[in-house]
Amino acid sequence: MEKLQVGLGERSYPIWIGEGILDRLGEALREAGFPRRVAVVTNDTVEALYAKPVLEALRSADYTTRLLVLPDGEEYKNLDTLNSLFDALIENGVDRGWGLIALGGGVIGDMAGFAAATYLRGIPFSQIPTTLLAQVDSSVGGKTGVNHRLGKNLIGAFYQPRLVLIDVETLQTLPVREFSAGMAEVIKYGAIRDRAFFSWLQAKAADLQALDAASLIAAVRTSCQIKADIVEIDEKEGSLRAILNYGHTFGHAVEVLSGYGEYKHGEAVAIGMVVASRVSVELGLSRKEQAEQIRELLMRFSLPVTPPKFPLDDFLRAMGRDKKVKEGVLRLILNKGIGDCLIHPIDRPEDIFAPVLNQLGTQG
């Protein structure tokens, strides 16, 4: 098992990463100073897989527990589901002496975290991410929230967990499509921040697909370390942290236009990365062969790389609601080759996206 630390002063917290470490949850929570009364928030899919061992680990460490189960799916990441979670917290007598544990993927982590940030004006929470995407991205950094029908993650708060415990053994029960969706975020880190990591992913693709534990731990550790380093500099996305949204601006537009659930988040991000890499080539920030390397690595994990066929105006309208729009100007995260990136304002996005989407065969 390995430990990382997200250094944010009084809001600092550890990330435990290992194989078969769910039974050490009580120990990890004690070290983090977590409340002894715990409401575990999960969904009906993860409940069947991991609720029992997690509750047993908590009870064997003398924690009082409640289990709260939400429906599974991105389409339930909304204010209606959040309100049902508040109902359950109130009905179970959860007060400020309690903490929440998010057990599941990114949807559960985001909703439970937002509930913790706002219920009784804030109670502690911790993350046990069970999907690769959540392990390498959404469980770290304190972004919480829900979707609105007009845009993804438009309602939320920055609220850091007390602990993130990542057991890569949970990936053994993850559907192949979900694992691939998580790999999009892993590949993102190499594309924008670490060329050597990108090359390592190219070399280790088969081992990762075979769920080799050592390779998984290494990939998760490196991804979490890159994200932690960025969050420590820019916790609330005032500047640098925005680079973690590489591929997300166009990817979120894909999700909104297609209806939440048609594409997995990581699948939409993969499409967005291909589009962003082509925009980088158009602007002279990258070479065609580097954009192709990104596309090929995504394809090795069976990720989609072609945008759905919606009119350009629809894509532009959806991207216009992106959180990175500032004073009416869209700001894109673009790779500079492989291993570096920048935030680039796009004054006339139609002039950039039209040729790129034409190249990808989705317009004209």
- Order of the strands making up the biggest sheet: 4-3-5-6
For CATH, the homologous superfamily of the largest domain is named as: Dehydroquinate synthase-like - alpha domain
Provide the number of structural domains: 2
Which runs of at least 5 residues are low in confidence (pLDDT < 50)? Answer: none
- So what's the CATH class of the largest domain? Mainly Alpha
**Helical coverage, percent range:** 40-55%
Level-2 CATH architecture of the largest domain: Up-down Bundle
The computed structural class is alpha/beta
Q: Strand share of the residues?
A: 15-25%
Query: Rg, please?
Result: 20 Å
- What's the helix count? 13
What does the average pLDDT come to? 95
Describe the structure.
Helix content is 47%, strand content 18%. It folds into 2 domains: 2-173, 3-Layer(aba) Sandwich (Rossmann fold), CATH 3.40.50.1970; 176-359, Up-down Bundle (Dehydroquinate synthase-like, alpha domain), CATH 1.20.1090.10. It has 364 residues and is of the alpha/beta class. It has helices spanning 25-31, 44-60, 79-91, 106-118, 132-138, 176-193, 195-209, 213-233, 248-258, 265-282, 288-300, 312-319, 349-359, and strands spanning 2-6, 13-18, 37-43, 64-70, 98-104, 125-129, 143-148, 151-158, 164-167, 330-335, 341-346. β5 (98-104), α4 (106-118) and β6 form a beta-alpha-beta unit. The longest helix has 21 residues, at 213-233. α5 (132-138) runs parallel beside α6, α5 (132-138) packs parallel to α8 and α9 crosses α10. The radius of gyration is 20 Å and the shape is globular. Strands 4-3-5-6 form a 4-stranded parallel beta sheet, with helices on both faces. Strands 1-2-9 form a 3-stranded mixed beta sheet, with helices on one face. Strands 7-8 form a two-stranded antiparallel sheet.
